[in-house]
Amino acid sequence: MAKAADVVVQCLENEGVEYVFGIPGEENLDLLESLRRASIKLVLTRHEQSAGFIAVTYGRLTGGKC
């Protein structure tokens, strides 16, 4: 049986997401493990606000999904 994190990552891959910006922590370890096995790249940031800023800027500049 698939974990919820696996389903979320599969949905992101199906939508063409290339990057996820964020901070690792014990709350999202399952998601990070699922991302590790996926084609989506995790971009580490130092703060949640900077992760959001980077994601919005990346999306606006490239038209890509993140």
What can you tell me about this protein's structure?
With 66 residues, this protein is of the alpha+beta class. The protein has one domain. It is built from 3 helices and 2 strands, in the order αβαβα. A two-stranded parallel sheet has the order 1-2. The protein is flat and about 40 Å long. The model has no long low-confidence stretch (mean pLDDT 92). Residues 3-63 form the Thiamine pyrophosphate enzyme N-terminal TPP-binding domain. InterPro entries: THDP-binding (IPR029061), Thiamin_PyroP_enz_TPP-bd_dom (IPR012001), TPP_enz (IPR045229). Pfam families: TPP_enzyme_N.
Which descriptors would you attach to this protein?
single chain; 66 residues; alpha+beta; two-stranded parallel sheet; flat
Q: What is the average per-residue confidence, as pLDDT, rounded to a whole number? A: 92
- Separation of termini? 27 Å
Strand portion: 5-15%
Radius of gyration equals 12 Å
In this structure, how is the largest beta sheet organized? 2 strands, parallel
Organism: Modicisalibacter luteus
Domain Thiamine pyrophosphate enzyme N-terminal TPP-binding: 3-63
InterPro entries: THDP-binding, Thiamin_PyroP_enz_TPP-bd_dom, TPP_enz
Protein name: Thiamine pyrophosphate-binding protein
